[in-house]
Amino acid sequence: NAGVTQTPKFRVLKTGQSMTLLCAQDMNHEYMYWYRQDPGMGLRLIHYSVGEGTTAKGEVPDGYNVSRLKKQNFLLGLESAAPSQTSVYFCASSVQGIYTEAFFGQGTRLTVV
Amino acid sequence: QQQVKQSPQSLIVQKGGIPIINCAYENTAFDYFPWYQQFPGKGPALLIAIRPDVSEKKEGRFTISFNKSAKQFSLHIMDSQPGDSATYFCAASLVGGSARQLTFGSGTQLTVLP
How many other CB atoms sit within 10 Å of the CB of residue A109? Predict the structure, then answer.
């Protein structure tokens, strides 16, 4: 049982380049999330999805786009990367409900030079 | 705007010590308070969680203390071990928009010396 899988694990981009981060979960979870983790800032929610075909903005959505065409996949796109987007990105998924656990992937370390 | 404030930023204890990590929140709409543990190179994983209708919850060596009136909660690790060395995040959850969302504290890097 793989849980939540993120690809790629590492990436270096030049300023202005674009890329897509892929998140796949095999737990049949309705909810999926993208977070970024920066030193001293904890994890901050970028975008989230409550089901196939739906997306919504989180705390820090600017510069990112997302899509959830299939229930098991949640894509995070950077159209024109900036150095401020250098971070570790985590995808998570959870079932619906009040007291539910979020399951995280292992993260993608992105450096924008 | 940081809705969940966590301290200390780092903590070093000897094996067997009792590290305490504190969190404070502002929004009284939060109704679920989990703690996540993160090892280097890994994603966070749920450690223990508490609801605001109880003041304490224990799971093994880990205890959450919750003070609703003060809007504070803390994690205690009894008989700490070197394997507990990790980054710990407190979080608070509420329904925002169309989904339940987690707001994380800034994290505490715990080192347990052998």
Answer: 15
- d(CA B86, CA B44) in angstroms, rounded, equals 10
Neighbours of A80 (CB within 10 A): 11
User: pLDDT-based confidence at A35, cuts 50/70/90?
Assistant: very high
B13 burial level (CB within 10 Å; 0-12, 13-18, 19+): middle
β partners of residue A66: A76
Cβ distance B107 to A42 less than 8 Å, yes or no, reads yes
Contacts for B37-40 with beta carbons within 8 Å, 24 or more apart?
B37/B86, B37/B87, B37/B88, B37/B89, B38/B86, B38/B87, B38/B88, B38/B89, B38/B107, B39/B86, B39/B87
Residue A113 token pair: 């030079």
Q: How far is A58 from chain B (nearest CA, A)?
A: 9
Task: Please tell me which of the candidates B9, B34, B43 has its beta carbon nearest to residue A107.
Answer: B43
Using one digit for the tens of pLDDT, what is the confidence trace for A42-78?
899 999 999 999 999 999 999 999 999 999 999 999 9
In this predicted structure, what is the pLDDT of residue A2? 78
Contacting B residues, span 49-88, partner chain A, CB-CB under 8 Å:
49, 51
Confirm if A20 and A27 have CB atoms less than 8 A apart.
Answer: no
Average pLDDT, chain B: 93
